[in-house]
Design goal:
single chain, 466 residues, alpha/beta, 7-stranded mixed β-sheet, 4-stranded antiparallel β-sheet, 15 strands, 42% helix, 16% strand, binds pyridoxal-5'-phosphate
């Protein structure tokens, strides 16, 4: 049998642990994890040598250096899996895979100043006694939406489960067939209802449901009429669905409750930006909804949270339910929500909240910014063009609204678009763009202005030729 390219010179784990590379990694991961990684590296090298059945005769030094390189590579791949900032140049404002809404500066400050050490989370500073958790954020939320009361939980999915469980477990909840949607990430309304113990009573047809369909479905056992915003899905053409006001009236005439899951929802009228289909939370409340749920990190632009607003009695039923204890939000969430909601209260939301700022950037502003940025790109390998295109709202909100934008189209003299994509994705910080017709595209709408210098440096330095 032939010796496979110097298998006998394969370094031991100990030898590898004594290299400079290993020492550097040890400082980051500790010795136990490093030893595991070193085992993987040596094992990978052994397999490579056997599989390649290489005739090359590697020296002891060659193999040690190969093992070091593998160790470094495995370590880097692992590190890329930890949470880290990326530059979002996709133009998708609420990018679910990139963490949805970015935080405002004020929100970051609020965490550091108010919630990072001890805080008055459940302590009343006026009386020195136990205080109500999240009271300030909930009061702000109620004030801004015109609701009697509010409650905050971990995310909107949790809010839906809490509402359905507390208000209709064992009884019937009526929903239109056109609203039995999957929101994404396996969150399906019919499944959530089944989990909550509510009996789903479907009415109407996919494209049309009338108020009389709901009316006919009401029985002794009905507890709730539910309206779900279809979010990432649109039925267009021959459609009909009753208004919130009509549904709330019908529910109240029959002594049952009306619940709307608005999904993203909007605290401000966003019709100017094409978002007229996003339910305005304050309108749902004034139209009589007993309870409305929506997300904290979609168009609200704050943090993962489930916001619940509605009638005092209904909200108190939710607060007292045992499930609330399992779904309640953290002090960090309250601090961020307070900061963001204050922005809405002071009517400064469009200046302070990144999601709304990005949404409201005009095509002209982006073009000017893009031209200025492109002039600073100095890389002879690249061919740069500015083309017009579309940004995307994302986060399952308004799939039909695509704000016009300017895109930086990049082609490289040696690399195809997917290679450019890979190099930028692996840069530090990673830059995420998109590919269209073999062009790599960057949209500055979702790039923070203070990230431009970094982005420029990456474009100028990392896209070298072979
Ligand atoms: C996004 C969405 C949810 C889930 O919200 P999360 O905050 O992601 O849990 C629920 N319902 C609707 C209609 C949605 O659009």
């Amino acid at each position: 049998m032939k010796s496979s390219g110097g298998l006998r010179f394969l370094p031991s784990i100990n030898e590898l642990l004594n290299t400079e590379t290993a020492k550097k990694i040890e400082a980051e991961t500790g010795v136990n994890h490093l030893t595991e990684t070193a085992r993987t590296a040596v094992e990978t090298l052994r397999r490579e040598l056997i599989e390649n059945n290489s005739k090359e005769n590697f020296s002891r030094e060659d193999l040690l250096s190969k093992a070091e390189q593998l160790l470094e590579k495995i370590h880097q791949v692992e590190r890329r899996k930890s949470i880290r900032r990326v530059i979002n140049a996709t133009g998708v404002i609420i990018h679910t895979n990139l963490g949805r809404a970015p935080l405002s500066e004020n929100a970051v400050k609020a965490i550091a100043e108010n919630a990072s050490r001890y805080c008055n989370l459940e302590y009343d500073l006026d009386t020195g006694k136990r205080g109500k958790r999240g009271a300030a954020a909930e009061n702000l939320l109620a004030e801004i939406t015109g609701a009697e009361s509010a409650l905050i939980v971990n995310n909107c999915a949790a809010a839906c489960i809490l509402v359905l469980t507390a208000l209709s477990k064992g009884g019937e909840a009526i929903v239109s067939r056109g609203e039995l949607v999957e929101i994404g990430g396996d969150f399906r309304i019919p499944d959530v209802m089944a989990e909550s113990g509510a009996i789903l009573k479907e009415v109407g047809a996919t494209n049309r449901t009338k108020i009389s369909d709901y009316e006919k479905a009401i029985s002794e056992n009905t507890r709730l009429i539910v309206k779900v915003h279809p979010s990432n899905y649109r039925i267009i053409g021959f459609t009909e669905t009753p208004s919130v006001a009509d549904l709330a009236n019908l529910a109240h005439q029959n002594n049952i409750l009306f619940y709307e899951d608005a999904g993203s929802g909007a605290l401000l009228d966003l019709s100017k930006y094409g978002l007229q289909d996003e339910p305005l939370i304050s309108r749902s409340i004034s139209d009589g909804a007993d309870v409305v749920t929506f997300s904290g990190d979609k168009l609200l632009g704050a943090i993962q949270a489930g916001l619940i607003v509605g009638k005092k009695e209904t909200i108190e039923t939710l607060r007292k339910h045992a499930l609330y204890r399992a779904l309640r939000a953290s002090k960090i969430t309250y601090a961020i929500l307070e900061s963001v909601l204050e922005g809405f209260q002071k009517e400064k939301a469009f200046e302070k909240i990144p999601v709304l700022k990005m949404l409201s950037m005009t095509e002209d502003e982006i073009l000017k910014r893009t031209k200025k940025f492109v002039r600073k790109i100095k890389n002879d390998n690249l061919n740069i063009e500015i083309i017009s295109g579309k940004s995307v709202i994302g986060g399952g909100s308004a799939p039909d609204v695509q704000p016009p934008t300017s895109l930086i189209s990049i082609t490289h003299k040696d690399f195809p678009a997917n290679k450019i994509e890979q190099i930028l994705r692996e840069s530090n910080p990673p830059v995420i763009g998109r590919i269209l017709e073999d062009k790599f595209l960057l949209d500055l709408r979702t790039v923070f202005e203070d990230e431009e210098a970094e982005l420029l440096e990456i474009l100028n330095k990392s896209l070298n030729s072979l």
